[in-house]
Write a structure and sequence with these properties.
Length: about 525
């Protein structure tokens, strides 16, 4: 049934593609989407550098000055799985059913009646490839190759969700994979099976060598970009392992600012990987027909201390001073959890924006509808999208998000209300309905606290989120009314939409394993 549904949707997309009257393949841009894991807003030097330090992202800074750097760009959620689902579908977890993390042993994944960007563009004549972290299901129906990608090379989930031999850097330090070949699986340690590396549907290495993984990603991305066997435009979705722990980098990337030690060096390697992908595009003379869109999947993982990113000014000061402490980054609806780097670069088409950056309210949810519009491919029309088409903004045409409403879902996966819309952005104002629940570096955590009526902050005047508006003030009452109306509208929209429920059941047999006779499935091809 799931296969039939996807086939019907692909046929509909293909019909829309032909009915749109597209020109030759050369008239449609190549699309490169780069997703950085656990990256802080201030990890990008161009975003935040009050001390004028040496930037660890010199290439990303450079292309941002030649394109558009969004200062108010947000991930679809503040944790990996629902954020990636939102990027690839343009829909919030309340619609797709993807509201928390899939595990090593998850039976399900991104529901098969949700259509991905890759499926839409593939039906529209694009060749599609993915490199890096998937985290939307590992079993057959949910594998990237089943979700619109012609080619896949990467990890099925986060790089800390399984042991490796070279453990890299994390807090607390990881344990290497056991070497015993024949220990019964019933005695399998908690960090097994080992972390696998896939090439298409095949596991080619388990455990993967993380140390040289960035170089191998670069090599495979270059091969995909330089494929001369077809003239079709391409979609390349590169979801980096950087900057998720365990951090790891090649020796040739050990230069850099050293201001933040291992983190700086890993960040520099990430930037070098983006440079190498761009260079491959230039070497095939496709730079003027290729869009590069860089985003983060969520903010820094504060629990990792010096191995975590930098959220800059977005520190959720109210939580730290009055809310009981704990993290205000990844897993939370504070700005540090979802405000991430956002850059779009398309030489010759997107006019350079001033170095001060663009202040429109933009989301990773916008990537799918915008890319589809630029590729002149229609979206499936039987569902509601939370993302908007911002192609006019990219092309220098009149565009404004002045009246936009953006919702930030609860992303603390251990809670039964994961996916609830815990924060609402209306213009410069942000209402927060639930706080607490995430660990900081010192392992402090505040109890979850509900706020109804919500805390409301003026982000333009108070980016630290330190002082909520007085509930008795006219300004609070005005914004609160807008927030209530927005929540009522989206709740009605969800109730009447084509929504799905993800399968979060687990089965040990669902874990990727290339060698069941080994305690951690060890194999190398």
């Amino acid at each position: 049934m799931a296969y039939c549904y996807r086939l019907i949707m692909l046929v509909l997309c293909l019909f829309c593609y032909h009915s749109a009257g597209l020109g030759s393949a050369a008239s449609r841009p190549n699309i490169v989407i780069i997703l950085i894991d656990d990256v802080g807003f201030a990890d990008m030097g161009a975003n935040w550098n009050p001390d004028n330090d040496v930037s660890d992202t010199p290439f990303l800074d450079g292309i941002s000055s030649a394109g558009i750097r969004f200062k108010d760009f947000h991930s679809a959620a503040s944790v990996c799985t629902p954020s990636r689902a939102g990027l690839l579908t343009g829909r919030l977890g309340k619609r797709t059913g993807v509201v928390g993390l899939f595990t090593t042993f998850s039976v399900g994944g991104l529901p098969t009646n949700e259509t991905t960007l890759a499926e839409t563009l593939k039906a529209g004549g694009y060749r599609t490839g993915m490199i890096g972290k998937w985290h939307l299901g590992t079993t057959e129906d949910y594998h990237p190759i089943s979700r619109g990608f012609d080619f896949y090379y990467g990890l099925p989930y986060s790089n800390n969700m399984g042991c490796v031999d070279d453990t890299g850097y994390s807090h607390p330090p990881d344990t290497p994979c056991p070497k015993d070949r024949f220990t019964m699986k019933s005695r399998r340690p908690d960090d097994c099976p080992a972390l696998p590396l896939y090439h298409n549907r095949d596991i080619i290495e388990q455990p993967v060598n993380l140390t040289d993984l960035a170089d191998r990603y670069t090599e495979m991305a270059t091969k995909f970009i330089k494929d001369e066997s077809t003239t079709e435009p391409f979609l390349l979705y590169a979801a980096f392992t950087h900057m998720h722990v365990p951090l790891s980098f090649m020796a040739h990337n050990q230069s850099g600012s050293d201001d933040r030690g291992v983190y700086s060096k890993t960040l520099l390697e990430m930037d070098s990987t983006i440079r190498a992908i761009s260079q491959a595009i230039n070497e095939t003379h496709q730079e003027n027909n290729t869009i590069i869109w860089v985003s983060g999947d969520n903010g820094p993982w504060e629990e990792q201390c010096d191995l975590a990113g930098d959220a800059g000014p977005f520190i959720g000061l109210w939580q730290r001073r009055q809310g009981g402490g704990g993290s205000t980054s990844k897993f939370t609806v504070w700005e540090g959890g979802h405000r991430v780097p956002g850059v779009v670069f398309w030489p010759g088409t997107i006019p350079p924006f001033p170095d001060t950056g663009n202040e429109e309210l933009i989301s990773a949810l916008d990537i799918y509808p915008t890319v589809a519009a630029l590729a002149n491919v229609s979206l499936p029309g039987d569902r509601v999208y939370d993302g908007i088409d911002i192609s006019d903004l990219l092309l220098g045409k009149p565009f404004s998000t002045k009246d936009r409403v953006l919702f930030h879902p609860n992303s603390i996966g251990i809670m039964s209300n994961a996916g609830d819309l815990d924060a609402v952005r209306v213009g410069d104002f942000k209402a927060i309905y639930r706080t607490g629940g995430a660990f900081d570096c010192e392992e402090n955590i505040a109890a979850v606290e509900n706020h109804d009526p919500p805390l409301i902050f003026n982000l333009r005047e108070d980016p630290l989120e330190s002082m909520p508006l007085d509930r008795a003030s006219e300004q609070y009452q005005y914004v609160y009314q807008k927030v209530v109306e927005a929540l009522g509208e989206i709740e009605h929209s969800i109730q009447t939409d084509n929504t799905t429920v993800a399968d979060y059941t687990e089965d040990p047999r669902a874990g990727p394993c290339c060698n069941p006779d080994h305690v951690c499935c060890r194999c190398q091809n």
